[in-house]
# Entry
Amino acid sequence: MRKTTGTLLLAIISVFVFAQNEKQDVIHFKNGTIIKGDIVELKPGDIVRIDTGKVLDFEMEKVKKIVRNTKKSKDKEEESIHDGFIGISFGSSYPVSEYADDSPDNSKAGYASNGITINLLNLGYQFHPNMGIGLKWFGSGHLNQEYEDEDNIWSNGGILIGPLLVIPMRDIMSLELKPMIGTGATILDKEEGNNLEGFGTSYHLGANLRFDIHNRWRITGGINYTSLNPDFENADRELNVNTLDVNVGIGYLFD
# Structure
């Protein structure tokens, strides 16, 4: 009887200990060391802080991988993630569709050449591990090749807003999808004056990779499709500004 009771007690204790271990986070180091506990702070590219009964800090460069307690870490992330981001990016802008067309028979032809793009303001706020909201102030410029003896330039810009869809990929890397809408303007700067100005709705679809290289700094890079349909009130001209933009940028993270 005593033997049976002892065996049963040992089994209960083993199950309890096993359950407790399953609830722990596990850090695997590159040198083979393993530490279990409760991760209380994780800064990609910087440190990981774990409570093993004693709070310890470790440099992320020494960590091979981190295994989190799925339910606990998910609950904690949903409660604590409030990541703000402000930055700037620039790159190349490639006109597509009628904006790049140089056919005299097309009344909507833009005669635009490859140009540059700059996002003077990239602002975002991530209120969930996979969701957030973003704001962008963008601009681009393309040479208009309609007249060989003149250097006319298409200048485009606007403000966009929309949701951020975030897909974590690695410790410091995430994929960010940005469908956005807003308002924009197009100006054709002519050498002889009489500039054209048009305003309209702008749409944007972006796919960017972001790398949190530090607890306060982020590098971004991606490709974006932007569409702007300006209405020229004082000119008999139709234009659809469609571009593919490839850019890189840097930003600052704030709480």
Residues 8-22, 75-82 have pLDDT under 50 and may be disordered.
